Amino acid sequence: MIQVAGKKIAWREGLTVSDLLDALEDPHSYAVVRINEHYVTRPNFENTLIPDDAKVYLIPMIAGG
């Protein structure tokens, strides 16, 4: 199991950040995801594995002006 935004989600071997975001079907665009204490940027989502028991924080893109 992993924890995403306070919710427990089933973990599987080989789970990447991209896989997780696809499974969540969340309409937000995320620039950065934090896995435990490690920050991952969008270009690395497809290649970054999420370990079992991880705490994942989704950090949305924010625009302002």
> How many strands, which pairing sense, and closed or not: the largest β-sheet?
5 strands, mixed
Looking at the structure, what is the overall shape?
A: globular
Number of helices: 1
Number of DSSP-assigned strands: 5
Computed CA radius of gyration, to the nearest angstrom: 11 Å
Helix content: 10-25%
Q: Reading side by side through the largest sheet, how are the strands ordered?
A: 2-1-5-3-4
Mean pLDDT: 92
Percent of residues in β-strands:
25-35%
Order of helices and strands: EEHEEE
Low confidence ranges: none
Distance, first to last CA: 39 Å
Structural class, judged by helices and strands?
mainly beta
Q: Outline of this structure?
A:
This protein has one helix at about 15-25, and strands at about 1-5, 5-10, 30-35, 40, 55-60. It is about 10% helix and about 35% strand.
Which key features would you list for this structure?
1 helix; 12% helix; mainly beta; 65 residues
Can you describe what's shown?
It is a single chain. With 65 residues, the protein is mainly β. It has a five-stranded mixed sheet with strand order 2-1-5-3-4, with no helix packed on it. β1 and β2 (7-9) form a beta hairpin. It contains one helix and five strands; from the N terminus they run ββαβββ. The chain has one helix at 17-24; strands spanning 2-4, 7-9, 30-35, 38-41, 55-60. The chain is globular and about 40 Å long.
Task: Outline the secondary-structure elements.
Layout: E1 2-4, E2 7-9, H1 17-24, E3 30-35, E4 38-41, E5 55-60
